[in-house]
Write a structure and sequence with these properties.
Helices cover about 20% and strands about 25% of the residues. The protein has 3 helices and 12 strands. The structure holds zinc ion (ZN).
Length: about 160
């Protein structure tokens, strides 16, 4: 996977109108979509009435759809804070995973998500991958207790040379 002009090359792209302004992403925020199927979750994020969006959606089959360039400010975090920052939409790339909230994530879906995160981390100065629950505690629970953090947390660990 590679990124060109803030987009994943070779990935389905459907641009959401639900975005405003540009950002320089330093975090990735993981979410679940709570939707019954991938199509309805994507349609909702493309609908101006929803006022929500994320940069990436990943279906249970592992299909990746991009909805906005990575330097666009999407609307996935809501009221949020982390390490002195507020409104994390201004600093983060949002990834929605198809999951009703209590389901196990599929292997294909997690493989795709790891690949997307690795590609983003190679391209932007990402400090951490966080859950929506980390930046909106008490208000949000996603990506939930089924999310395999052990596959994602090491991706932003720095070695002794200070490189990722
Ligand atoms: Zn969320």
């Amino acid at each position: 996977m590679e990124i060109s002009a803030h987009r994943l090359v070779g990935v389905s792209y459907q641009e959401t109108p639900n975005k405003k302004g540009t950002i320089r992403p330093i975090y990735i925020i993981m979410h679940y979509d709570e939707a019954s199927n991938a199509t309805s979750a994507i349609s909702w994020m493309l609908d101006t009435k929803s006022n929500v969006s994320a940069h990436i959606h990943i279906s249970r089959e592992g299909t990746v759809t991009q909805l906005a360039p990575f330097n666009a400010k999407c609307w996935h975090a809501g009221i949020s804070f982390w390490k002195g920052l507020r409104d994390l939409n201004k600093y983060s790339i949002g990834i929605e995973l198809q999951n009703k909230g209590t389901e196990f994530y599929t292997e294909k879906q997690i493989e795709s998500a790891v690949e997307v995160c690795k590609t983003i981390i190679a391209h932007y100065p990402i400090k951490e991958i966080l859950g929506h629950s980390d930046i909106a505690p008490g208000r949000k629970e996603d990506p939930g207790t089924r999310f395999p953090w052990m596959k994602f947390k090491p991706l932003t660990k720095r070695d002794d040379n200070g490189t990722t």
